[in-house]
């Protein structure tokens, strides 16, 4: 126990220096509301890496991208699962996909472009792919492009492997499991047809590049790590990237109510979706209640 305490010798000043370095390099802000989480995770990292003092950790992460990335991995690791927010995928299935199907029915080719921004270990983009494959009429006749990005290279490596535990697949129905996964002992592997729908790439959202026009953007529980200024800037970029009539999905605790962007807020069941106006008419302030009855 004494040895473990010794490995966690870090001052508040050193924690502030690490916090500032992370925000400057990645845009990720660990504010006062996450102070306890941040200091605990940093001390856990020091203990795991046998780093005796905060000054040693600062020297390592300033001098090595590998060391910096390793700390970021520990700070951002969070448990996720397939269809983690069922109401979100119900809204995608019953509201968004039928609307886009009608909009694009006569296009040749019919293309659907989706961005999963902050995809972690891949459960979200694969859940999107399953929903599309199951719900979109004549899905095989569409060009489906799901771009999944994350700052964590370790998470992306796991996502690309397409291998998941039973615990992660708890919300996947037996039919979906049989259709879209192959059994591999106690784990399941995403089948090639589904995997071809998703492309993974590393990306720091604080330095996001233009990805072309998109029909849907998922950015759920990611912007909570950003300052208000960065969050506003990112949402403005999302608005610009979306096609007219395109949708933005954010986390339940995230709101665009104070953001100076002209999204329409659409209430669909238990979800609030944000839609870029399709025409000249812009709805300001009021939510459009659709599919709630």
What do you see in this structure?
This protein has eleven helices and eleven strands. It is globular. The protein is of the alpha/beta class. The strands form two sheets. Strands 6-2-1-7-8-10-9-11 form an eight-stranded mixed beta sheet. A three-stranded antiparallel beta sheet has the order 3-5-4. Mean pLDDT is 86; it is low at 1-7 and 280-293. The protein folds into two domains: 2-76; 86-289, 3-Layer(aba) Sandwich (Rossmann fold).
How is this structure best summarized?
By secondary structure, the chain is α/β, with parallel strands linked by helices. The protein contains eleven helices and eleven strands. It has helices at 2-6, 12-26, 35-49, 54-63, 65-76, 86-104, 123-135, 153-161, 174-180, 192-195, 228-241; strands at 111-117, 143-150, 163-165, 181-184, 187-190, 198-202, 214-219, 242-250, 264-268, 271-275, 288-289.
Key traits:
single chain; 293 residues; alpha/beta; Rossmann fold; 2 domains; 8-stranded mixed beta sheet; 3-stranded antiparallel beta sheet; 11 helices; 42% helix; globular; disordered C terminus
* CATH level-3 fold name of the largest domain: Rossmann fold
Largest sheet: 8 strands, mixed
Shape: globular
**Radius of gyration, rounded?**
21 Å
Q: What is the ordering of alpha helices and beta strands?
A: HHHHHHEHEHEHEEHEEHEEEE
Query: Within the largest sheet, what's the order of strands?
Result: 6-2-1-7-8-10-9-11
Provide the structure class: alpha/beta
What is the total tally of β strands? Answer: 11
- What do we call the CATH homologous superfamily of the largest domain? Vaccinia Virus protein VP39
- Helix segment count? 11
Task: Note the gap between the termini.
Answer: 58 Å
Q: Return the CATH architecture of the largest domain.
A: 3-Layer(aba) Sandwich
CATH class membership of the largest domain:
Alpha Beta
Any low-confidence stretches, pLDDT <50, length ≥5? 1-7, 280-293
- Helix content bin: 40-55%
Number of domains: 2
Q: How would you state the average pLDDT, rounded?
A: 86
What proportion of the residues form beta strands (DSSP E)? Answer: 15-25%
